[in-house]
Amino acid sequence: MIATVAGSYQIPTLGLQILLAVVTTSISVPLIYLLRRYVDQRPWSGLGLSSVPSGFRYFLLGIGFLALVTAAALLIGSAAGWLRIVDFHFPIVTMLVILINVPIAFFYEAFPEEITFRGYVYRNLNTRFPRWLALVLQVVMFVLAPIAVTAFMVAIGIGTWDLITVEYIINLVAFGTVLQLSRIVSHNLWMSIGFHLAWLEMVRYAVVPSQYAFIEIEYLSVWGNYMVTIGSVIIGIILLIVWSLRSKNRIDWNGIEPDLPPDSNPETKEVLPAQSV
């Protein structure tokens, strides 16, 4: 809706992107904070978003994990004959574009979406439902959100259903799952944010059929495209599930984790274990 209104004033594309990023974060993050503080009356730390210094390594972990699963997807796609790696480049122009796009993507998509869905929504669900069910319900809500927005825009006459396809929904399900698993197994929302941001830059600039990409690829089959975009995410889901089942870091998927107010006496808390060691 904001894009439609801004378009009527002929705002340049970059200016529109910056506007959307500022508006999205400036509305969603304070709203989550107010809900957390005054409605839920629970500590902000319960969302899993640590301070920037302590969360930076998890942010890098998310980026590194995306690089790992992308490399695996490229190897599998090449071995299956679905795609071909044409060349490796280091284009300065693309570097500049990414430097401009990263803060926009961070504040427009990665940060507010992770705070909202993998942070606030999941945390509240896990206070009432087992961890596995909280994950599933979060994914359902993540998928329903753009559908609801699209339905509203269609109802007021400024949108269409063209973007809501089966492929789009499958992508949302896989993406919402890998991001929530990242939050669960790392116990830190910054890993989800790092993975989310890196994936956006990867599919837009880093691994695409263009001489301006870092890894120029040629799709020999439609499955090659699916392997890079959705396949990399599915590989990530598999690896994270395996990670969660390791005896040293085993996740109790039936665990419910009550989120008590900050003034509660920790000695009187009756909290189900988040993990079984």
Spell out the helices and strands N to C. Answer: HHHEHHHHEEH
Low-confidence stretches: 265-277
Average predicted local confidence, pLDDT: 90
Give a count of the beta strands, DSSP E runs of length 2 or more. 3
The oligomeric state is single chain
Helical proportion? Answer: 55-70%
Shape: globular
Strand content: under 5%
Our measurement of the CA-to-CA distance between the termini, rounded to an integer number of angstroms, reads 48 Å
**What is the number of helical segments per DSSP (H or I, 4+ residues)?**
8
**By helix and strand content, what is the structural category?**
mainly alpha
- Characterize the biggest β-sheet: 3 strands, mixed
Give the strand order, joined by hyphens, for the main sheet: 1-3-2
Gyration radius over CA = 20 Å
